[in-house]
UniProtKB/TrEMBL annotation:
The lineage of its organism: Bacteria, Pseudomonadati, Pseudomonadota, Gammaproteobacteria, Pasteurellales. Residues 5-179 form the CobQ/CobB/MinD/ParA nucleotide binding domain. It comes from Haemophilus influenzae biotype aegyptius. Keywords: Plasmid. This is ParA-like protein. InterPro entries: CobQ/CobB/MinD/ParA_Nub-bd_dom, DNA_Partitioning_ATPase, P-loop_NTPase.
Length: 212
């Protein structure tokens, strides 16, 4: 059965879909990967459409699974990983995915607005884990400023570590870099262009979470 990796948030604008796309491409080096877009905005599915329309520019293709697919479906047996993007709200589909996922990754921007959602998010994770015993949850600081004098990232990390969350807080950040926006807009990923810092940063985080 495939490992289900859910990108979940109760707040929009945290870079969830972009990070899900990067993860899908990264995991193709380790097995067969499918994606599932449970967000009504269909940001991840539109990325797949751009990717497929690019033809030979990208060798690794994805065929999205329907968002209403039964998670016990035998169709999942043909994949090693399924990367799931959910809406940036506490939704019914997001809760359903939580009850079936193996890993849930919650990106957070280092901002007060994002930190204000952490305790509510943790309550949702605690409830899900009481039913889904295999679920492992992680918080990741995403879209961090690259300015060397920025203090928000370090301050946000400290607050997360002191919050007593049931989710594991990943210390390694993912920075807000142009390569992520430009590659995503073209249906690509940072793992398919020349060596760049984003690929290194995301790989470190995913290796720590998924153990690949």
């Amino acid at each position: 059965m495939a490992k289900l990796i859910l990108f979940n948030s109760i707040k929009g604008g945290v870079g969830k879909s972009t990070l899900a796309a990067q993860t899908a491409v990264f995991l193709t080096d380790f097995g067969r990967v499918a994606i599932m877009d449970c967000d009504p905005q269909q940001t991840l599915n539109r990325w797949v459409m751009r990717r497929n329309e690019a033809g030979e520019n990208f060798q690794r293709k994805f065929s999205p699974l329907p968002s209403d697919l039964d998670f016990s479906s035998k169709n999942l047996n043909q994949f090693d990983y399924v990367v799931i993007d959910s809406a940036g709200i506490d939704s019914k589909t997001g809760r359903k995915a939580l009850l079936n996922a193996d890993f849930v990754i919650s990106p957070l921007k280092p901002s007060q607005a994002d930190l204000d959602t952490v305790l509510d998010l943790d309550d949702i994770m605690l409830e899900a884990k009481s039913i889904n015993k295999k679920l492992k949850s992680f918080c990741v600081l995403n879209m961090c400023a690259t300015h060397p004098k920025d203090k928000e990232r370090a301050e946000s990390l400290e607050l997360l570590q002191q919050a007593g969350l049931k989710s594991t807080v990943i210390e390694e950040p993912i920075f807000d870099r142009k390569i992520l926006r430009t590659s995503f807009s073209e249906g690509g990923s940072c793992f398919e262009v020349k060596a760049n810092k984003s690929a290194d940063e995301i790989a470190v985080v995913l290796q720590k979470i998924l153990g690949v």
